From TrEMBL:
EC number: 5.2.1.8
Species this chain originates from: Desulfitobacterium dehalogenans
Protein name (record): peptidylprolyl isomerase
Gene of this entry: tig
GO cellular component term, pick one: cytoplasm
MF terms in GO: peptidyl-prolyl cis-trans isomerase activity
Length: 353
């Protein structure tokens, strides 16, 4: 499956029989004979977090919290492309003001070159100075979807430039941290540690996922599959229906959706056909592995893992709602697949760097 496509959740498919310990599992006419799945090699990942990565996170945070203020050093210099201005404006069509064409003396931010105003508006302000008022003649595009009554019409905007904006970046202080986190963290040292710990956790999660993917792929490649064409076609059709519905939700057809992924419709169909086969193989493999190793999810396992699911799916403090929405047995099956994948890594051997 390529990075472009969202996978179908394996956990939502077919009930799992954990009785017995055969290395062969059949699902209808499709079947698998497990190959070697223990002692597989996987790459070790570097989970070290250098000081600079922590500082980069802090810098990005501070920049995101910068305050736009007047830049007095630009009061006598001409406006240039890339400047951010604080302006007021009044728009006229046929000599009369029109709805939505007035900043109402509340001021408005405008980045020159952003293309956020109609064509010609921003360019006309280049070279003007702070404090000046100028008339700009422009023409609304045709069609103009924001207000079809203005489509193709000539307009004049009277624009006053109040000042060029600069962004004051705050310092990483105890006071900043306390305010930003609403008191959850009260010192810069505490929040620095939080950022470091978060980066470590993210790297460890990425490493875990990469290791799982590596051993799963190897174990599946070591196994022998017999796939039923009817089952492949059914799974493929389910995937096509899913992406067709997804495209419909965006108000486009499947061919247009495929183009947004830099694919033709035929490319998408071919990709989904491959994905259907891969999905069936993964289901068969995990069912066979779970049966062979007699893996299960105990109530203690479930209680230990459920918190991560509630956080991920937005059901914090609402386990009953989550289980009603996704079905407890389906959730347990997803957990069981994860446990099987974790076991493959535990049975594996980290490759030497």
């Amino acid at each position: 499956m390529t990075k472009h496509l969202v996978g179908v959740l394996l956990c939502a498919l077919m009930a799992m029989n954990l009785a017995g310990c055969s290395s062969t599992v059949s699902n209808g006419k499709s079947s698998v004979v497990l190959g070697e799945y223990k002692g597989l090699s996987y790459a070790k990942s570097d989970t070290m977090v250098p000081d600079q990565e922590v500082q980069d996170e802090i810098d990005a945070l501070l920049e995101s919290q910068a305050t736009p203020v007047e830049n007095p050093e630009r009061n006598s210099t001409p406006v240039a492309s890339g400047d951010e201005l604080w302006i007021d404006y009044i728009g006229y069509v046929d000599g009369a003001e029109f709805e939505g064409g007035n900043s109402n003396n509340e001021g408005a931010s405008l980045a020159i070159g952003s293309g956020s105003f109609i064509e010609g508006f921003e360019e006309a302000l280049i070279g003007k100075t702070v404090g000046s008022t100028t008339d700009i003649n422009v023409t609304f595009p045709d069609p103009y979807t924001s207000n079809t009554d203005l489509s193709g019409k000539a307009a004049t905007f009277t624009v006053t430039i109040h000042y060029v904006v600069k962004h004051e970046i705050p310092e990483f202080t105890d006071a900043f941290v306390n305010e930003y986190t609403h008191g959850e963290y009260t010192t810069a040292t505490e929040y620095h540690q939080y950022i470091y710990d978060s980066l470590v956790t993210a790297k460890e999660d990425e490493a875990k996922a990469a290791q799982m993917n590596e051993v799963i792929e190897a174990a599946i490649n070591n196994s022998t599959f017999t796939l039923d064409e009817t089952e492949i076609e059914e799974t493929y059709n389910e995937m096509v229906d899913y992406y067709t519905s997804l495209a419909d939700s965006y108000g486009i057809d499947l061919e247009t959706y495929a183009s947004h992924l830099s694919m033709t419709l035929d490319d998408l169909y071919a990709e989904l056909k491959t994905n259907a086969e891969d999905t069936i193989k993964q289901e068969l493999f995990f069912d066979a592995l779970i049966a062979a190793e007699q893996l299960n999810i105990t109530e203690d396992d479930y209680a230990e893992r459920i918190g991560e699911y509630l956080n991920y799916y937005g059901y914090v403090d609402d386990q009953a709602g989550f289980e009603a929405a996704y079905d407890k047995e389906t959730i347990k099956k997803r957990m069981l697949y994860e446990k099987a994948a974790e076991s493959l890594v535990e049975w594996g051997v980290p490759a030497e760097a």
